Amino acid sequence: MGQQVHYSTALTSTCNYGTALTTTSNYSTALTSTCNYGTALTSTCNYGTALTSTSNYGTALTTTSNYSTALTFTSNYGFILTSVSNYGTVLTSASNYGTALTTTSNYSTALTSTCNYGTALTTTCNYSTALTSTCNYSTALTTTSNYGFILTSVSNYGTALTSTCNYGTALTSTCNYNITLTSVSNYSTALTSTSNYGFILTSVSNYGTALTSVSNYGTALTSVSNYGFILTSVSNYDSP
């Protein structure tokens, strides 16, 4: 079962208990895909205004948006959620109880990823204006920003939080009750890392302007700054 539309105003696809749902939209105004209990959901939007994909209990959800205005992804109890946005204005990915959430944004204005109770959350942003990743009760959270302006990572009760920023303006990482928090900033303007009740907090800044690390009740706090201008480390109630 599949649908394709070119130069259309609206494209809507609904799949219930089906094996595969494939939707392709070129130059359309709105693209909406909904899959319940299906095996695979694939949506592709080129030059469209809005792309929305929703998967409930589906095995795989893949959405690709090129030059579109808005891309929204929602996966509930799904296993794989993959979002790719090129030159789009807004890219939003949300995964609840999913196994893997992967989001890639190139040259887009805003990229937001949210994972609740998932196994892995991976976010990659290239030349984008804003990148935000939020992970709750997940096993791993990985965020990478190249030439982006704002990179924000928030992990609550997750096992690992890793943030990497290259040539970006700001890198912010917040970890609550997490096992590992690692932040790496190369040539960025500001790097801020905050760990509450976490076990390991590591911040590395190369050629950056400001590096700030704050650890409350954490086991280890390590800050390394090479050729950076400001390095500040604060540890409260931390073991030596």
Outline the secondary-structure elements:
Layout: E1 2-6, E2 10-16, E3 20-26, E4 30-36, E5 40-46, E6 50-56, E7 60-66, E8 70-76, E9 80-86, E10 90-96, E11 100-106, E12 110-116, E13 120-126, E14 130-136, E15 140-146, E16 150-156, E17 160-166, E18 170-176, E19 180-186, E20 190-196, E21 200-206, E22 210-216, E23 220-226, E24 230-236
Parallel strand pairs: 1-3, 2-4, 3-5, 4-6, 5-7, 6-8, 7-9, 8-10, 9-11, 10-12, 11-13, 12-14, 13-15, 14-16, 15-17, 16-18, 17-19, 18-20, 19-21, 20-22, 21-23, 22-24
Concise summary:
The protein is an all-beta fold and 240 residues long. It has no helices and 24 strands. The strands form two sheets. A twelve-stranded parallel β-sheet has the order 1-3-5-7-9-11-13-15-17-19-21-23, with no helix packed on it. Strands 2-4-6-8-10-12-14-16-18-20-22-24 form a twelve-stranded parallel β-sheet, with no helix packed on it.
Account of the 3D structure:
The chain is mainly beta and 240 residues long. It has no helices and 24 strands. The chain has strands at 2-6, 10-16, 20-26, 30-36, 40-46, 50-56, 60-66, 70-76, 80-86, 90-96, 100-106, 110-116, 120-126, 130-136, 140-146, 150-156, 160-166, 170-176, 180-186, 190-196, 200-206, 210-216, 220-226, 230-236. The strands form two sheets. The protein has a twelve-stranded parallel beta sheet with strand order 1-3-5-7-9-11-13-15-17-19-21-23, with no helix packed on it. The chain has a twelve-stranded parallel beta sheet with strand order 2-4-6-8-10-12-14-16-18-20-22-24, with no helix packed on it. The chain is flat and about 55 Å long. 42% of the residues are buried.
